[in-house]
Amino acid sequence: MINPEYAFFVYMLSSKSRNLYVGMTNNLRLRVTQHRQLREGTHTAHYNIHRLVYFERFQYVNSAIRRENELKSWTREKKVALIEKVNPTWEDLAAGM
After folding, report:
1. Which residues pair with 14 in a beta bridge?
2. How many CB atoms lie within 10 A of CB 80?
3. Edge-to-edge strand order for the sheet containing 51-58?
4. Over the stretch 4-35, which tens digit does the pLDDT of each residue have?
5. C-beta of residue 54 within 8 angstroms of C-beta of residue 11
6. How far apart are CA 16 and CA 7, in angstroms?
7. What phi and psi values does residue 95 have, to the nearest 5 degrees?
8. What is the full DSSP assignment across 12-47?
């Protein structure tokens, strides 16, 4: 079992029009809350990106950073395919957080 103290997350957020954002954090609930505040001048606020549609959990920060960079280098089509593989209806996975 992964010690929650050492949990890191790579995540994708989406707007209703499916603009995407890829990020990494050690506190997914807090980070989603911060994105939902739509702070002026941020990419997520500009495109109204605040719905958690995909995430992965890692024990080691270096693994999470590598995965974040990998996902950021992917084409949009490849990111969409990954999301739809595990979340075909693009539900907000943070709705129950």
Report:
1. 20, 51
2. 17
3. 20-25, 8-14, 51-58
4. 567 999 999 999 889 999 999 999 999 999 98
5. yes
6. 28
7. -60, -35
8. EEE-TT--EEEEEES-HHHHHHHHHT--TTSHHHHT
Q: How many CB atoms lie within 10 A of CB 5?
A: 6
Q: How far apart are CA 92 and CA 7, in angstroms?
A: 21
Domains of the chain, first to last: 4-86 (3.40.1440.10)
Contacts of 67 (CB under 8 A, 6+ apart): 10, 24, 56, 58
pLDDT one-digit tens code per residue, 28-80: 999 999 988 878 888 887 888 899 999 999 999 999 999 999 999 999 999 99
